[in-house]
Specification:
The complex is a heterotrimer, with one copy of chain A (282 residues) and two copies of chain B (246 residues).
Chain A: H1 3-21, H2 36-47, H3 57-73, H4 80-97, H5 109-134, E1 160-161, H6 164-182, H7 193-204, H8 211-221, H9 227-243, E2 247-251, E3 258-262, H10 271-276
Antiparallel strand pairs in A: 2-3
Helix pairs in contact in A: 1-3, 2-5, 3-4, 4-5, 4-7, 4-8
Chain B: H1 2-7, H2 18-29, H3 34-46, E1 51-52, H4 53-59, H5 66-77, E2 82-87, E3 90-95, E4 111-112, H6 115-127, E5 130-131, H7 132-139, H8 145-154, E6 157-163, E7 170-174, H9 176-181, H10 193-198, E8 225-226, H11 230-233, H12 241-244
Antiparallel strand pairs in B: 1-3, 2-3, 5-7, 6-7, 6-8
Helix pairs in contact in B: 2-5, 3-5, 6-8
Classes of the chains: A mainly alpha (282), B alpha+beta (246).
């Protein structure tokens, strides 16, 4: 496919996407009706019309990024997860295209691509069994129990029925109602990097190195006007995590990129290198 | 169960053997297609109420000889544990008369608590000891007498004392029956704020200062409570409505 | 129809004639008393919920050979419009699979499950016990509270324990109502389970020791699970044991 044709195709997909989502009341395309970035990737992968185990992740990343561009052109508001995935695919693409300089810590680009393909296969497998399950004869839809049962004696039932779940949800619901009646929470505009990372972790699993990725996340997932705020608040959050020993951070010189990564448990063995790096910034 | 016998259109010997039944089946089979018996059987089994012939005819394929099929089915089931009977001109499967002993004991009919009742109960459980006015404050709505009576009837709440404030309002708490119904070992097993949020029952966006009390049903009165008078004590069992309101 | 055949203990020809049915009846009758068949028939017909063998045995005279009688009854009904099936290890009469077209009027139009809910249900069913985070990891999306609530409301999933990992997340599994709804005798009858296991997509990703290749709704906890505390227990759907039977 020529790049132009590719963009065209993606615009079609994006339009279709918008249509599928148009039944949704919210501005956000995701959540109830649509099934997230992996779902979208699966849909794109099927367009390659090859076995999922032989899918080209590079081509898939291109398609996905083209889709995001097309969606932006259509001013389609995408849920944050889609943008996080875009950031990650852009990162993965850059690593796939450049020869790996030296064996780095953590998974290689190829391993990451394979992991993604594996996840897509797994999602598809669950889809398949889900539809087979739903195709089974279902009670009171396909097969029926006695419609007018006669009471049987030794089944004891309490006179008043209410489950603990009823009780707790009733409690929570009314407290919540009253609480929100007093305070209205404005929809949040700031999306922190920590949230982006949490979303990414859900999407692609744990990642060893965040530092490079963050710049992609900023580009894709964050409103341009908010970038400085987000960067600042996320740095603050990071320092807190460092203090708690959950993260490591270092910077080679003033204004140089800040390197951040998860602190390994001592047993993991790979903590040594990280500990050696000076962790003082500020 | 004698009423049931009267309802039967075709009398038959209750103790007719299985082999006799087969003979009658054979007779019926002459004019009735086995597949039609299956359809009729399934329809009557799944129906939530007795069906009249008009309804049955409308649901079955047009070529079915309904009368003959009904009769054949009735014959087939005549000697069984379940009979096909005619009730007020409509058809239904019913347990055979002589087996009513199998199903004799009355099953208790479950009643579902109203939403208002369960909400009130929840507030009492978490905030006890709590007065009626306090419940209303927390819930933001007045409590109806009906709701309250129902809760007393469940035996899950009880008056436990009086608050030492003007008007000396009665304080309420939960009972042991409450714990055992909801499978709680003690009241402190009720989930707190974090647990409620963790389970998604409360969402994360709560105003600062929002708390969920740590409930206790310790029967010992609190400092701001005084004991009920002997006259109040029966309130829990049979609350004269006008006194509960006070 | 293949699904139906799987559920039957004794395979049989769907189009078996009525006379053939009588033959098998005769064979069964050798070891089974007709009166016992009547009793069992009446008991199972009267209930809409599946009954377990213990409950049945308790209701029947002690000398009844329950297994043999059940099998004979299942045989008798195999070719009829109503079948005796085994779901979730219990016994129930259900209309025959091939007659759903006839019974559309009886169908309770269920709340249509969203795709998210269906997929989540499948992940829980095939991968249980499974935590919420694991479900999200497989599906690549956060589980919305709505989806989760809808599934809890169906009564098909339940919290079953806590995983012995940091944060002690709650593990989820399916219920008996799930098996009963989908007409499954046990989880090993889940369609496509073997292929899914063979594909290796069920293992991996989880730290060693936490792989769960075979789904199990055995209420006994796994090694990596610990019990819910009383407070959590009913958080989900929570039928106290005696209510499960209703």
């Amino acid at each position: 496919m020529t790049p132009d044709a590719d963009i065209k195709a993606m615009e079609t997909v994006a339009a279709e996407f918008a249509e599928r989502a148009s039944g949704e009341p919210a501005l956000v395309v995701d959540v109830e009706g649509f099934e997230g970035p992996l779902d979208l990737l699966l849909m794109l992968a099927r367009q390659q019309k090859v076995d999922l185990s032989r899918i080209s992740i590079l081509a898939l990343a291109d398609q996905y990024l083209a889709f995001i561009e097309a969606a932006r052109k259509l001013r389609l508001e995408l849920a944050a997860d889609y943008l996080v995935m875009a950031a990650w695919l852009a990162y993965l693409k850059s690593r796939l295209l450049l020869p790996e300089a030296a064996p780095t810590e953590g998974p290689s680009a190829e391993e990451m691509a394979n992991a993604l393909a594996w996840r897509l296969r797994r999602l598809e497998a669950f889809r398949e069994v889900a539809s087979r399950l739903m195709a089974r004869p279902q009670l009171q839809r396909d097969v029926f129990a006695r419609g007018d049962p006669e009471p049987i004696a030794d089944i004891k039932r309490p006179q008043w029925s209410a489950t603990l779940y009823d009780l707790l949800s009733a409690y929570a619901a009314q407290r919540q109602r009253r609480a929100l009646a007093h305070v209205s929470v404005a929809p949040r505009k700031v999306w922190s990097l920590a949230e982006a990372r949490a979303a990414l972790e859900r999407l692609i699993g744990r990642t060893e190195d965040w530092h490079e990725l963050d710049s992609y996340l900023l580009t894709y997932a964050v409103e341009p006007a908010l970038r400085p705020t987000v960067l600042a608040s996320s740095l603050a959050a990071t320092l807190e995590l460092v203090r708690e020993g959950a993260m490591e951070v270092h910077q080679h010189s003033a204004f140089a990129p800040i390197y951040v990564r998860k602190r390994h448990a001592p047993a993991a063995g790979s903590a040594g290198a990280g500990n050696g790096a000076p962790s003082g910034i500020d | 169960m004698t009423a049931l016998a009267e309802r039967r259109v075709i009398p038959h010997d209750e103790l007719q053997s299985r082999s006799k039944r087969k003979e009658s089946e054979d007779r019926a089979a002459a004019s009735v297609r086995p597949e039609d018996l299956r359809l009729l059987e399934a329809l009557l089994f799944a129906a939530s109420e007795p069906l009249d012939e008009k309804t049955l005819a409308a649901r079955l394929p047009p070529e079915v000889d309904l009368r003959a099929t009904l009769r054949a089915l009735q014959n087939e089931y005549a000697s069984r544990g379940v009979n096909l009977v005619r009730v007020a001109g409509k058809w239904a499967f019913r347990t055979a008369n002589d087996l009513s002993w199998l199903l004799t004991k009355e099953a208790v009919v479950p009643k579902k608590l109203s939403r208002a009742a369960i909400e009130t109960l929840a507030v009492i459980a978490y905030h006890q000891p709590v007065t009626r006015v306090e419940v209303e404050e927390i819930r933001g709505v007045a409590m109806s007498k009906g709701t309250f009576d129902v809760l007393m009837e469940t035996g899950w709440i009880r008056p436990r004392g009086r608050r030492k404030t003007p008007g000396r309002p009665i304080t309420y708490g939960t009972t042991e029956a409450f714990l055992s119904h909801f499978g709680l070992e003690s009241l402190s097993d009720l989930p707190g704020l974090e647990e409620l949020q963790g389970s998604g029952l409360l969402d994360g966006r709560l105003p600062p200062g929002f708390t969920v009390p740590t409930p206790s049903d310790d029967p010992a009165l609190r400092e701001d409570e005084e004991p009920l008078e002997p006259g109040d004590l029966d309130l829990g069992l049979a609350p004269p409505p006008e006194r509960v309101e006070e």
